[in-house]
Design goal:
The structure is a single chain. This protein has helices at residues 16-48, 167-177, 229-232; strands at residues 100-104, 109-117, 132-136, 150-154, 183-185, 188-193, 200-205, 208-221, 239-248, 251-268. It has 3 helices and 10 strands, in the order H-E-E-E-E-H-E-E-E-E-H-E-E. The protein starts with 15 loop residues before the first helix and ends with a strand. The radius of gyration is 56 Å and the shape is extended. Strands 1-2-3-4-9-10-8-7 form an 8-stranded mixed β-barrel. A hairpin with a 2-residue loop joins strand 5 and strand 6 (188-193). By secondary structure, it is α+β, with helices and mostly antiparallel strands.
Length: 271
């Protein structure tokens, strides 16, 4: 006996074929529905083609600082106008005998009275030697003035007396002269020094005040000084020349120290 009934699975009288048709209809409906959805989606995509896309989600904005939280601004400094330099006076000062002398600069200041001396060679300033210099009043140079030529001023420097009127000017120049290479002027060996460059010489006269700025200094053997043509040129305009002796550290040297200065300001007397 067979273990199962060999008859067909579906027996006569059972409506199974009808159920099969229903299943097929459902499948068809599902397929049709899917097709409709696909067509509708495609149509919607085509309809929206070219339209602007939806606005992107706004990003979170960083809040700007309020005026209370803004960093304090550093005030811009107002440019200040530089003070105008005082105008250097160049007034007319008539030639006259000097009555007072000064030389001033970074290292020292010397003030002295001025006496007149004769042109007697060798030139030897007379009188009190600590507070007095002399000018040659006849035959060598002219009285100082704003339009004058050269004025010659002489004063003593001496190693044996530290209070001699021009020691402070002689010593720094002599220090350089002793180590300088010679420069020949008019065939004479001169020894340049720059320690006094820029110093201001002041001469006061009854006509006003004259200021001269030192532009050169040098040493020359005493016996040859009169042979230096620029030194002896009395016609050189608006110039003052100081002549003294060379001394340094207690030693006197056989040189004259020559200091040349040019007129840089003149102020007429108001009296």
């Amino acid at each position: 006996m067979p273990l199962c009934d060999p008859a067909p699975l579906y027996s006569v009288g059972v409506s199974k074929p009808a159920d099969s048709d229903t299943s097929r209809q459902r499948v068809v409906l599902v397929v049709v529905a899917l097709l409709v959805i696909a067509v509708a989606t495609t149509a919607a995509l085509w309809a929206n083609r070219g339209r602007p896309s939806a606005a992107p989600t706004a990003r979170a904005r960083v809040p700007l600082p309020t005026p209370a939280t803004l960093p304090a601004r550093t005030p811009t400094p107002t440019p200040t106008r530089s003070r105008a330099r005082p105008r250097i006076p160049h007034e007319f000062v008539a030639a006259a005998a000097p009555t007072s002398f000064a030389i001033a600069g970074p290292k020292f200041t010397i003030k002295a009275h001025v006496c007149g001396m004769d042109n007697v060679r060798p030139l030897d300033p007379p009188g009190e030697q600590h507070h007095t210099v002399c000018w040659v009043q006849h035959g060598f140079g002219v009285p100082p003035g704003s339009r004058s030529a050269t004025t010659y001023i002489l004063g003593h420097a001496w190693a044996q007396d530290s209070l001699e009127v021009l020691n402070k000017a002689s010593a720094p120049a002599t220090r350089e002269i002793l180590h300088a290479r010679p420069v020949y002027v008019s065939g004479v060996a001169t020894y340049p020094a720059h320690a006094l460059d820029g110093y201001v010489i002041s001469l006061r006269t009854p006509s006003g005040l004259l200021r001269y700025t030192v532009d050169s200094a040098y040493g020359v053997a005493k016996s040859q000084a009169a042979s230096v043509a620029p030194l002896m040129n009395e016609a050189a305009k608006q110039r003052v020349v100081i002549i003294t002796c060379a001394e340094l550290n207690g030693v006197d040297y056989d040189y004259n120290v020559i200091v040349q200065a040019r007129l840089s300001a003149s102020l007429a007397s108001r009296t």
